[in-house]
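fyi for ur records
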Amino acid sequence: MSQFINPFTDVGFKRIFGQEVSKPLLLDFLNHLLEGERVIVDLKFLDKELPGVYDGDRSTIYDIYCQTDTGEYIIVEMQNRYQHTFKQRSVYYAAQAIARQGERGSQWGYDVKAVYVVSFLNFVLKEVSADFRTDVGLMDLHHHTLFSDSLRLIYLQLPLFEKEADECDTDFERWIYVLKNMETLNRLPFAAQSAVFQKLASITDVASLSKDDRMKYDESLRKFRDTLAVMQTERMEGHAMGYAEGHAEGRAEGRAEGRAEGRAEGRAEGMIEERQENARKMKALGIATDMIAQVTGLTADDIAQL
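which gave:
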């Protein structure tokens, strides 16, 4: 069992950022995220589930929904699985939070407070830039100037953050490093120099969980691992389908038969290497050997040697 909780699980993420006792952690993270723009002195957690605006409309459920001391609204989301509509989803979330502000009464004069959507992505979102951090706002396309600060979308693609602990230059980078690597760490770096990271270490220590919280966390961790296993299976099935189609095309080519066989062999070798790499990642996450074998097709002996 890991020393610290997995922040990518639903329970782990909300334990770090979504409870009253951990409010100083969320404040610290957001202030470093928005450093140079504004300082958030305090915030309050709001109801994460917003009912539909009309009969038949589905409710909107956020991971974390809060309001700053100066009135801005902040939505924080953790997403583990790729969704091709996630960009539209984040726009919808922001639009819902903006539209809700008009429910205050007939005297409301369109005093729109800014809405921020901060999305932790445990995958690469093809629909945004290839940078670790992507910031989106409303701008004048002709003059390339800010049109309004009422809407802000921030995407943090964790797989694209590659710095090691000693390479982190800012507290924001230190936050990202710790969140990305927390479950594999035996001790939390930066805790000796920072009271915030000391508090983070105490909140995320698995041994500090109550019996009830531990049961909830274990169930959340199981769901997270199941999600990973399903994702790995889908990738492997996709590769297998591509291999089969490529092999069929190769047989049909006739004169290019030799080249097709060479490509097929190369793909087969690539698949083996990918299975081994997937097995290493799943093994590091503590997934049982029999489940890894079932997903990757490797034998228990092969997995033990990785």
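Confidence is low (pLDDT under 50) at residues 52-59. thats all i got for now
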